[in-house]
Amino acid sequence: MTRRGRRTISEARWPDAPDFVELAQKWRSDAITVLLNLIWQGYDLYQEGVLSKVDLSQADDQLERDITQSLSIYIDTARSGFEPFILRTEWFENEQRKPSPARQKQYDLAFIWSSPPNIRIVWPLEAKVLHSDGSVSEYAKEITDNYLTCRYAPFSSEAGMLAYLLKGSSKRAFDNIAKSVPCLLTDHIDFQNRDHKTSDHQRIVPAGESYPRNFRCHHLIFKILEKQSTEKVTTRRLSTKQIAKKTTKEKASTEKSVEHNLD
Fold first, then answer.
1. How many other CB atoms are found less than 10 A from the CB of residue 92?
2. pLDDT on residue 197
3. Neighbours of 112 (CB within 10 A)
4. pLDDT tens, 12-71?
5. Which residue from 151, 121, 91 is spatially nearest to 14, judged by alpha carbons?
6. Which of 32, 71, 86, 90 counts the most CB atoms within 10 A of its CB?
7. Rounded distance, CA 137 to CA 140, Å?
8. Confidence band for 1, pLDDT divided at 50, 70 and 90
């Protein structure tokens, strides 16, 4: 690594670092959807187990770090254990590091390739608190200054942003993100019932490097302070039997209501 002068142990052990997404798709063609679904399931569990049980207007200190740290536990709880990646918080990215004693870049959350292990291959997530649906400048800066310059996710053609929205609407937040980056945001086909969009970019790859140039950013908005339903909406669909049972129950409830009104 003449660019940095000295190698880390990880670089000596794993001199090659292929694209996380390509590796994952060899495991399962829908591997990234599996990964993203873990995040949404973790959020559902966090919402049900934590957010719904506290007065959030009285608990607003260290929001970004506290939410991210707790969320990681719930995401990990949702894992089956068979995924070829593990989740870590505050994970250092050494690839674009400056000489010591400078501190490396650090991800808020990182899925790290683990089967077989190669800890240089990371699918990262950066989190930002949005105090309103218009306060997106720092969020956009993470994308333009870090993801699109390959400082973040050098070995992954996809990565994510988490927005912890405190006030306002997800739609307006998405509109402001699209204008601020700027980029075109589109719905994710597997998460159309979620506040989940994607944007596609061409990255600036440093000379001499072979990092993925085509890059997809996932944008997930978590509403934090607003009261929310704890119903879990995942990529799994209700079975025909479940739908029939739900329809019968709703019909019976409607008939009972009509009878009551007639009385």
1. 16
2. 98
3. 19
4. 999 999 999 999 999 999 999 999 999 999 999 999 999 999 988 788 889 999 999 999
5. 121
6. 71
7. 5
8. very low
Q: What is the mean pLDDT of residues 177-191?
A: 98
Question: Could you give the CA distance from residue 97 to residue 43 in angstroms, rounded to a whole number?
Answer: 32
> Cβ contacts of residue 241 below 8 Å, gap of 6+?
none
Q: What is the dihedral of CA 22, 24, 170, 135, to 10 degrees?
A: -70
Cα–Cα distance measured from residue 262 to residue 27, given in angstroms and rounded to the nearest whole number: 59
Instruction: Give the C-alpha separation, 1 to 223, whole Å.
Output: 43
* Cα separation, 259 vs 257, whole angstroms: 5
Fill in the amino acid letter for 19. D
Pairing relationship of beta strands 158-165 and 85-93 according to DSSP bridges:
unpaired
Q: Are 174 and 197 spatial neighbours (Cβ–Cβ below 8 Å)? A: yes
| Residue 228 confidence class, pLDDT cut points 50, 70, 90 | very low
Nearest partner of 136 among 167, 102, 180, 94, judged by Cα:
180
Entry pTM: 0.84
Q: Would the CA dihedral through 98, 1, 105, 161 be positive or negative? A: positive
Q: What is the per-residue burial (b if ≥16 Cβ within 10 Å, else e) of 21-31?
A: bebbeeeeeeb
Q: Which long-range contacts (CB under 8 A, 24 or more apart) does 196-200 make?
A: 196/36, 196/40, 196/220, 196/221
